[in-house]
Amino acid sequence: MTVRTILRAAAVLGAGSLALTACTTSDNSSPQTDRSSESRPGAPAPDQSSAPAHTAAPDDDGSRVLAQVIGRDSIVLTITGVERAASGKNVTVSATLKNTGAKGFFGISAYGGTDASIKGRMHSLAGATLTDTTHNMRYYVLRDTAGGCLCSTALRALKPGETVPVFALFPAPPASVRSVDFQLPTFPNATIPVGAAR
Q1: Which of 61, 74, 170, 175 might form a disulfide with 101, Cβ 3.0–4.6 angstroms?
Q2: CB neighbour list of residue 177: distance below 8 Å, 6 or more residues apart
Q3: 66-88: per-residue pLDDT in tens?
Q4: Is 125 helix (H, G, I), strand (E, B) or coil?
């Protein structure tokens, strides 16, 4: 065989090898793509996987814990109840505030929020909100006819180790919504379940 014949045969073999490699890559990648798309419908939605892991855990006093977050100066907010009214028009969030620090806490006024039109907000939970992340809607504490919030009021400084029960009433998100984010100034968001109306 001449050198030219050998080179021509090598070129033909090289082209065949490249074609075979391309087919193999195509064959291997196709099933992986299919498996990936098949697994997506069974995967949990983001809001389901982020539900609190300690929903049924008891607090120090034996009450149910739906969520627990720590705010400024070692104040612990524990959400113990979320209930839709029978009418389905509002939701009541029940919680406790506990001073786990070694000093008295005098920062209650921060919980009243920044809406100066709410009567008595400086010593209340008027600054609390619920956020429906599914529909991008935020709900504020309801008010009475005098402009006061339908929430805990007349809050005072918390002594070290002291726990006080608090509540706030909100407009209800749509019945299809099963979780919302509760936010109180100076605390991180707390994701809490919202059940059906009773």
Answers
A1: 74
A2: 132, 134, 135, 194
A3: 999 999 999 999 999 999 999 99
A4: coil
